[in-house]
Amino acid sequence: METNNSKVLLIYTGGTIGMIKDYQTGVLRAFEFDNLYSRIPELSHLDCEISVHSFEKVIDSSDMNPQHWVSIAEVIEKEYQHYDGFVVLHGSDTMSYSASALSFMLQGLAKPVIFTGSQLPIGDLRTDAKENLITSIQLAALKENGVSVIQEVGLYFEYKLYRGNRTTKVNAEHFQAFTSMNYPILVESGVHLKIMKDNLLKGKAKDQLEVWKEFEQNVAIIKIFPGITPELLNAFFNIPHLKGVVLETYGSGNAPTYDWFLEALRATIQRGIPIINVTQCSGGSVIMGKYEASEALRQMGIIDGKDITTESAITKLMILLKKNISPNLFKIKFEESLAGEF
Ligand code: ASP
Questions:
Q1: Nearest atom (ligand 1) to Cα of 59
Q2: Can you spell out the DSSP letters for 183-245?
Q3: Is 16 a known active-site residue?
Q4: Is the CB of 117 under 6 A from ligand 1?
Q5: Which of 58, 59, 190, 200 is the most exposed place for a label (fewest CB within 10 A)?
Q6: What is the pLDDT of residue 327?
Q7: What is the spatial distance between Cα 115 and Cα 81, in angstroms, rounded to a whole number?
Q8: Ligand 1 pocket check for 92: Cβ under 6 Å
Q9: TM spans, by residue (predicted)?
């Protein structure tokens, strides 16, 4: 495997990774990625060519929205033929949402798109940003016989590359901020880069990249809890223009069996609003019909979210709702894996 002669584009959107601490004042300010090599001289040891595209207005990832996802995707679309791989520098807070969205948007992707960020600013003495950045660039440059080794959207953090749409941010303090409970890691970085070839996405790459750019934002994530009231549930389901719901249920997809609860769900589905059953557990899968508490959901046509993350489910829902397909086809399409998310 080689990285030489590869060209990698860094797309800088913001987040902690782009910060540098002024040691005199203690204030964090944005790092100039244009002067990347002078800031991180180690990069010159990589035998690939790195260019930087910076968002005009860099943002904390709490401000990310579908328009930003489209902006990231459009840079990749425009530069797709000119680069071998892409690294997206992004705040960690909503990185799993963006990585999930991009995995569905970049249809036919045959090159690596690696999201990364850091818990400490790049200018901090104990920063995790340098390792995350350098290894992400290496992964984005990696080729075998001239072909990209990674042909999917990944998320690299603290020595591990994960499938982007399988990740969740689980820790606000540890360097190990992300996990992928339902899918093994793609690459482990130690003395050597250990690439788990069997875990990489296969069979989705095409000659031509197609980019999906439409999102339905009239959607909701509803997390049930013991004591949830009919007023609250019905208020959610009666939000004007609501088009789809991700329902976070218990365990293997179980929900209350009260008549009012089931009736509220049934009425919503009958209005043509799809409801996706995902589990509140961070690992494991929805298995509708395993318990009586989920059999009623299965019978009324709730969509099986299987082992998808909430981040993936909501972004996939936003995209599929824009395809204007019948409720039956919608269910079939949602339950199919588009980018390795199940
Ligand atoms: N709040 C920051 C962000 O998500 C945290 C980070 O960058 O890790 O943009």
A1: 9
A2: S--SEEESSSEEE-GGGS--S---SS-EE-------EEEEE--TT--HHHHHHHHT-TT--EE
A3: yes
A4: yes
A5: 190
A6: 94
A7: 19
A8: yes
A9: none
Structure confidence by residue, pLDDT tens digits, 282-336? 999 999 888 888 899 999 999 999 999 999 999 999 999 999 999 999 999 999 9
| Residue 47 reports pLDDT greater than 90 | no
Residue 158, ligand 1, Cβ within 6 A = no
Query: pLDDT per residue over 91-132, tens digit each?
Result: 999 999 999 999 999 999 999 999 999 989 887 889 899 999
- Place domain 6-211 in its CATH homologous superfamily: L-asparaginase, N-terminal domain (3.40.50.1170)
pTM comes to: 0.96
The string of DSSP codes covering 131-190 is HHHHHHHHHHH-EETTEES--SEEEEETTEEEEGGG-EE--SSSS--EE-TTS--SEEES
In CATH, the number for domain 219-335 is: 3.40.50.40
The ligand 1 atom at the shortest distance from the C-alpha of residue 94 is 4
The one-letter amino acid code at 137 reads I
What whole-number distance in Å separates Cα of residue 249 and Cα of residue 252?
Answer: 8
Pairing status of strand 153-157 against strand 160-163: antiparallel
Residue tagged active-site, from 3, 16, 116, 127? 16
* Sequence ranges of the chain with CATH classification 3.40.50.1170: 6-211
